[in-house]
Amino acid sequence: MNTIKIKVCSGCESSFNCGDISAENKCWCNDFPPIFNLSEGGDCLCPDCFKEACEDKIDAYVETLTPQKALKNKALFLPKQEKLIEGIDYYIENGNYVFKAWFHLKRGTCCENDCRHCPY
Hints:
The chain is of the alpha+beta class and 120 residues long. The protein has one domain. The protein contains three helices and four strands, in the order ββααββα. A two-stranded antiparallel sheet has the order 1-2. The mean pLDDT is 87. This is Cysteine-rich CWC family protein. It comes from Flavobacterium psychroterrae.
């Protein structure tokens, strides 16, 4: 049985659906990297605010990395996610996909293609 709740975003105060909304019985937020602890405060965020919070947290983490630290980074140890998320894993520039550091960190190695955002 699907359980959908209507919640109010603690960031922007808009209403949104939260809960099991798909055949796989998982919430939309499960498509995002599991990088938040429940103790980090606040109630659920809407999809836009949650994505922005993920981008901010990932960008702050990436700024702390050196090529040496990137080899054993946190992204390697998170559950693998199949869906790529624009703004977190990549952005589009002149019609081309440009992969961000988070995408490279999840892969775990340098591909030797001189990628713009390679953390290695």
